[in-house]
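Reopening this ticket.

The earlier resolution said the output was attached, but the attachment link was broken on my side. Pasting everything inline this time so it's all in one place.
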Amino acid sequence: MLKGIPVSSGVAISEALLLENNTVSAEKKNITQEDIATEQHKLEVGMTKTEEQLVELHQQLLDSVGEEQASIMSAHLVLLKDPAFIDEINNLIKNELIDVSSAVQVAANQFVQIFESMDDEYMRERATDIKDIANRLIANILGKNNQTSIDIEGSFILVSDDLTPSETVTLPRERVKAIVVAKGGKTSHAAILARSLGIPAIMGVGEPLTNAIQTGDSLIIDGSTGEIFINPHPEQISKYQKKIQSEQEEKAQLAKLKDTKAVTRDGKEVELVANVKGPQDAEEVLEQGGEGIGLFRSEFLFMDRNALPTEEEQYEAYSQVVKKLSNKPVIIRTLDIGGDKHLPYLDLPEEMNPFLGWRAIRISLSRPELFQTQLRALLRASAHGKVRIMFPMISHLEQIQEVKKILEATKEQLKAENIDFDPNIEIGVMIEIPSACLLADELAEEVDFFSIGTNDLVQYTLAVDRMNEHISDLYDHFHPAVLRLIKMVIDASHRHNIWTGMCGEMAGDLHATEILLGLGLDEFSVSPTLLPRVKHQLLQLSTEKAKQVADKALSLGTPKEVLDHAIASNPVS
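Inline output:
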């Protein structure tokens, strides 16, 4: 048995297909000054061919799985045409006198090293995208085929050292029962595609994977636990066949809850909404029975491109999701970059401690033209539905007061231009810094709602870098200090007649649901795929018992004690 990172849930039993490496090697030859123009022409031809292929793949994804997944190929197009990438290739041809295929390989390797050295998992995973683009470009320059060949009949579980988005897109989906990859993680584009296609997947298994498994081996993979069983015995096969049947039955039962309100057994209605990256996720929120959007991460409109999105581009994106939600609430967070998210075209400085540095609202307030463009787009979108604006990384009372001044000035601009917007648009702050928890009473007088971002709140409260594998065991949202801060925020909001939601990962942890309900949380915002499970959990609970469970949790001293108490009170299968 091997174990990796579970990235797409589900169980599969099938025969293994070990995917051979389809990397195309560069020619690796020196050229003369007379050859430079010829090599640069080859680059232009290869770029054109590659662009045509990516556009075709984009359309395939758009037709089959939707806009979010298709945007992966749009991002590849942006990377392909990145001026820095193209300039580096041309410089290598002219200055190093190497052939164009070698220049592409060297330039790509330089970019790969930059991305692989980044702290943020999402950005590290973009290194695979660059390798994918470079391999496709080199193949087109050399006139070679880099398509994945499938030499097996019937269905199979794909096993590979690495898997590029291009390979994932071109797989015969009706035959692929699961994907197992030695490299990669939850934010790789291959993982995103696997989840979108509903294919169970495990990544990050490590080097033993391709040595331990041969084409034709019988495999069981559990995409929920990350376990891989090689040539399992009949008892294991029978056990997991029953699990597959159970999953199908559970999924059918949860689907029936789509139009059911999240109301506890004693009648408390809880707002159950979703976190999304962009307009492409709105349909899934509705399909999964979400009552709105609790976190629209606007920064994803700013990523995988070479320049800031215009006001019109932002307005179109915000309006699209607001219209699709049909007057259900949509909370849009203003630009949250810096820390683990980088925008090269903004030319942000290198920082010793980026998570404690110039990021989120700090950048917005220091670049009013950028901030006001986004506020104009948000206000204009509010004419089409129930928009709420949320401001991230608030640590000082003065920040939200300054934000409100800029917002009011922006409203006056739109009034003067006779542009429609909701004059009573609600605003809130993302509570993710301990100082904001301690100032909750003062902040509550300035806004209409709070939304607790537990990912950063845990990190800042416990002084634990959540990306650092050496101390990851110290990062725990069940820590009593975190619970007490959450309670402090909720109580303050209720004293001032505003509500508190939660959009961090803790909101989707079924072991935490009862405690959060007992602490008085008004809104849970989770990944769209988690909506049915969280709703099912809330329907089983009563607020009276939940309060008792939460009170007890607040008195405990360690995260383990809190988790054990939560499980004992309400086990989650």
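Reporter confirms the inline version is readable. The first helix runs from residue 36 to 64. The chain has a mean pLDDT of 89.
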